[in-house]
Amino acid sequence: MTEPVLSVRDLNVGFRTSRGLAHVVNGISYDVQPGETLAIVGESGSGKSVGTLALLGLLPPGVAKVSGSAVFAGEELIGRSEEKLRPIRGAGIGMVFQDPMTSLNPVLTVGRQIVEAVRAHGPMPKAAARARAEELLAEVGIPDPRSRADAFPHQLSGGMRQRVMIAIALAGDPKVLIADEATTALDVTVQAQIIELIGRLQSEHSTGVIWITHDLGVVAGIADHVLVMYAGRCVEEGSVDELFDRPVHPYTRGLLGSMPLVDDPRPARERDPLSTMPGLPPDPVRLPPGCSFYPRCTIRADERCRTEVPPLVPIAGSSDRHRAATFYAPEGV
Amino acid sequence: MTGYVIRRLVQSVIVLIGVSILVFAIVHLVPGDPIRLALGTRGTEETYQAMRERAGLDEPLVVQYFQWIGSALTGDLGVSFRTGQPVANMISERVPATLSLAAAAIVVALLIAVPLGTLSALKPRSPVDWFATVSSQAGLSIPDFWMGIMFILLFAGTLGWLPSGGYVGFTEDPVQWARHLIMPAVTAGVASGSIMTRFVRSSVLEALGQDYVRTARAKGMRARDVMTWHVLRNALVPLVTVGGVQLAYLLSGVVIVEIVFAWPGLGQMALQAVEARDYSLLQGTVLLFAVIFLVVNLVVDLLYAKLDPRISYEQGAAR
After folding, report:
1. Number of residue pairs across A and B with CB atoms under 8 Å?
2. H helix or E strand, kind and range, residue A208
3. Which tens digit of pLDDT belongs to each residue from B184-226?
4. Do A86 and B220 count as a contact with CB atoms less than 8 A apart?
5. What does the UniProt keyword field contain (chain B) (predicted)?
6. For residue B8, what is the enclosing H or E element?
7. Interface contact A89-B309, CB threshold 8 A
């Protein structure tokens, strides 16, 4: 295996709140290989976005408490000053955010916003930066980039805006691209185009991609490795096949059970009903002492589930990259 | 855009007609007879009647209104009862003093509001923020006549650095013009600055929390550039509205500040016109204030479209 371009170990993020410290990310570890796609899956509030924003120091200072380690291209990111993180932002690690409407400045032209990204990492004459911005617009599949560069965000469609966001993220030629719910706000057909675009750019530049999503359909289509997060912890990780074929953690099983099967040959009324998971994720200020999923778990296989946090351990009979944090050991896995 | 401006101008004319009727009615309904006030104890009944006729005051009010508004359209605002001078001349003599004071005061207000409001938004609940809150509260609460008098006592009296009042035209002596301008401009600017500080603080705070600011930081832009182009640039849009209102207010004369500093501006003249029941002078000045407000508001709305491309005044382009 090649050297990972990004290596995160035991990342913790807490938010100081009036009720105490909210434990939003609790001991997450993962590697991103060049050209590989890592999907981080979880429901809203599971800490998946916060964990990546913390890498680049994009969380509100003074409120967020970040610890652990994140090594990017041999350099530690956690604890770096704002000024020392700046060269990494955009140029080392690029980000594409969820809602391209709010993530682009409404009062500046898209061309200008791309030029800013182009010129953020070293001096470049205005005309050259503008030409580069048009090149990037063409690269992300925007027709007539010369005139589109003068458009304001509200003059473009949602899909076009997300392409602009991707152009901005690509401007610094990053080694890692973080797509934070990058397709969630888009129509399904546009989603597919954006996924395809990122996939193409990834293979051309052998970029490592972290794809943050709650859409398991997207994960199945694009991910190499999947990390399932629940209440700020990694509950299960593995290759996409391992995870979809032999999920171990009750939460992962629940997630997969709540996804409709498109290729179910039975007519609709004869299919198994979609399962739902009752309850809500735990309060990050008062995490349960045992497994975070215990309050919602329907299996509760072991008395330790309530009192001990299950460690993330390799699954017997699977590859050593398939690991789960549960005391439950289902039959036949 | 041209269509929009024309529509707005037509609206402005309608508003002005309304204002002119209102002004005319109020001025003529206020008790007190301008001719008797102007004559004092000297006049006989014959001279009084003669002057009333000459001023047209013996005509019915409706006729008087149309005579006034008719000549106002040709730029003739009538003649002051008290001084006998044309009102238009009296107003235009006062315009340079008022313009100087309003422009200087709005600069002072911006110099207070933008840095103080921005700093307090950047560090909420810090000592800077606390200072900004307390000082803007104080700036709003302290009466401007008291502040003006304190300035005079300190800078004109004790220290003797600045003249205590009066106005020198810029073309006569720019240095003296500036020296006379400092204290009234600061006095008038502090109150406006205090109001605007709060607006700057809240609009900068709002801009700071926007997703596009996070995008700008994620691009690797310098903190200073993020601040200038993504925070302040966007916070400017709401500030233009407040600044416009403040500017219109300052342009229509800060009466008390003008009196404290013996500043020959429009506000002072309007007050004198009220005292003397100088109908034509008062009508003329109030009409001018209405025009100022209408023009400033139109300029603000046009600036809005310039600053925020999402705002379009083209017909059918409403989003």
Report:
1. 83
2. strand A208-213
3. 999 999 989 999 999 999 999 999 989 999 999 999 999 899 9
4. yes
5. Cell membrane, Membrane, Transmembrane, Transmembrane helix, Transport
6. helix B2-29
7. no
- Whether residue B220 and residue A91 make contact (CB cut-off 8 A), yes or no, is yes
Distance, in Å, from the CA atom of A186 to the CA atom of A195, rounded to the nearest integer, reads: 11
| Cβ atoms of residues A183 and A12 within 8 Å | no
Neighbours of B311 (CB within 10 A): 15
Give B120-164 pLDDT, tens digit per residue. 998 888 898 999 999 999 988 888 889 889 988 898 888 888 888
Which residues in B lie closer than 8 A to residue A94 (C-beta atoms)? 218
Architecture in CATH for domain A33-53+81-223: 3-Layer(aba) Sandwich (3.40)
The answer to whether B98 touches B185, Cβ cutoff 8 Å, is no
Q: How confident is the model at residue B317 (pLDDT cuts 50, 70, 90)?
A: very low
* Identity of the amino acid at A263: D
Inspect the interface and report whether the beta carbons of B309 and A107 lie closer than 8 Å: yes
Distance from the B79 Cα atom to the nearest Cα atom in chain A, whole angstroms: 50
Selected residue of B129, B212, B236, B304 to mutate for chain A interface (largest A Cβ count, 10 A): B212
Nearest of A218, A230, A226 to residue A309 by alpha carbon: A230
Domain residue limits at B13: 2-87
Residues 6+ apart with CB under 8 A from A197: A140, A141, A163, A166
Domain boundaries of chain A, sorted by first residue: 33-53+81-223, 233-324
- Could you say which of B42, B59, B87 is where a domain stops? B87
- CATH at residue B290: 1.10.3720.10
Residue B215 contacts residue A182 (beta carbons within 8 Å):
no
